[in-house]
Amino acid sequence: MTKPLSPQSIAIVKATAPVLVQHGVAITTRMYERLFVDAEIKALFDQAAQASGEQPRRLAAAIVAFAQNVDNLQALEGAVQRMASRHVATNVKPEHYPKVAEALLPAIRDVLGAEAATDEVLAAWGEAYWFLADVLIHREAQLYVDAQPLAV
After folding, report:
1. Catalytic residue flag (residue 115)
2. Which of 32, 127, 129, 140 is an active site residue?
3. pLDDT tens digits for 25-79?
4. pTM of the complete model
5. Does 140 participate in catalysis according to the annotation?
6. Catalytic pick among 32, 97, 127, 129
């Protein structure tokens, strides 16, 4: 079972939603720049969608939706299912999630600066990231099991 987010983290994440609307694509673009220094991770992504800006825009929209609904996660069930299905289709594994966190959280500070992306804000987003990652990892594990052929 996924550990619930703290009320303080929920409040901080929700409060940052307007900033993410404004700077989300810049943050996700920077995150991918950081992430793609790892060729193995880069190979998991559709590079045409990266070059066109589609993938950074999609991820930014997902992050904004998460921030806006962090106190009503049932509203995100369809999006989580689609994301988990896409991750399974592209062979995303639990060991990839720490690398994304290591790229995303510094990207937030890179774009917003240390005054806006304080340690408190990054800690809240770190907690929120791992909460969502845990949800996705568990859902993806089930999808991987479901995709296995039945033994005869």
Report:
1. no
2. 140
3. 999 999 999 999 999 999 988 889 999 999 999 999 999 999 999 999 899 999 9
4. 0.91
5. yes
6. 97
